[in-house]
Inverse folding.
């Protein structure tokens, strides 16, 4: 019994959300033909888009946002003020194989797991938001066009990093990250920081220990060194002027259930805090 939902179990859960009143639509199909869903809840004027599971082996975002979506139906006040759109599984092929990356090309269907894992058959959709070669990246772009969000949150888990490597344990359990790309407008950048601060404060209240913004990979993988125009939080902040941030929690990869639970809890705490502030026009005000 897996501790998290498979793609099929997710689609069953979406039926449940539909019965509660959620609007479920398709924004595209994965390379291997799995539907990529968009869940929309609420009827307010402030709009958020939450992207989960671009990386297939980072499952807590999907779990957290499924629970959150269900809970929103008990929050009529919030739903009067916001429209929350969630992509619960942006990379369903990767999720099914419990692998970070996306499938690339039809040939890979017939290939073995090992063959599919090698470079010619795989790719990172979160480095593809500029060129959009992957159907999964195009699906996110479609969701952005359709939902016209005031902000975008991109949810991940982090992996063995320098904290694991040197200290053998994660000191932090939450990492808010934003791009440092100089082309992002100052006001949008200011909002990106604000979103991260709201999230970090919520994580602290929930008993977590957040890293500094962009704090987990300062030496070799930090966004200071990677002001990439391809990753989601950069791309939409830069090209559409939409405030956005990436939230990473512990969990995923090694399937430690304690970390998985914590990651899920912190994803919920941080994301819901940002949505509350959005509803009250305290962030991303026009
Ligand atoms: Zn990731």
């Amino acid at each position: 019994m897996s501790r998290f939902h498979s793609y099929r179990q997710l689609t069953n859960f979406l039926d449940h959300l539909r019965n509660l009143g959620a609007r479920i639509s398709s924004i595209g199909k994965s390379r291997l033909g799995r539907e990529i869903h968009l869940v929309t809840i609420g009827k307010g004027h402030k709009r958020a888009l939450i992207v989960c599971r671009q990386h297939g082996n980072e499952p807590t975002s999907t779990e957290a946002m499924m629970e959150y979506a269900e809970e929103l139906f008990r929050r009529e006040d919030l739903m009067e003020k916001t429209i929350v759109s969630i992509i619960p599984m942006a990379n369903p092929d990767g999720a099914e194989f419990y692998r970070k990356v996306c499938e690339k090309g039809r040939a890979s269907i017939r290939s073995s797991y090992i063959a599919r894992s090698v470079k010619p058959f795989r790719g990172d959709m979160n480095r593809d938001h500029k060129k959009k070669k992957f159907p999964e990246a195009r699906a996110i772009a479609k969701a952005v066009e359709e939902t016209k969000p005031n902000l975008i949150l991109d949810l991940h888990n982090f992996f063995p990093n320098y904290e694991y490597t040197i200290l053998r344990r994660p000191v932090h359990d939450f990492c808010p990250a934003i791009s440092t790309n100089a082309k992002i407008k100052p006001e949008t950048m200011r909002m990106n920081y604000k979103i991260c601060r709201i999230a970090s404060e919520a994580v602290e209240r929930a008993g977590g220990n957040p890293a500094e913004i962009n704090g987990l990979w300062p030496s070799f993988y930090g966004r200071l060194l990677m002001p990439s125009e391809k990753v989601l939080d950069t791309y939409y902040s830069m090209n559409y002027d939409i405030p956005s941030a990436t939230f990473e929690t512990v969990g995923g990869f090694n399937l430690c259930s304690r970390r998985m639970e914590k990651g899920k809890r912190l994803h919920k705490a941080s994301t819901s805090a940002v949505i509350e502030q959005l509803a009250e026009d305290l962030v991303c005000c026009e």
User: Anything to note?
Assistant: The chain has one domain: 7-279. Strands lie at 23-29, 35-41, 46-52, 82-87, 102-103, 122-123, 151-157, 174-177, 244-249.
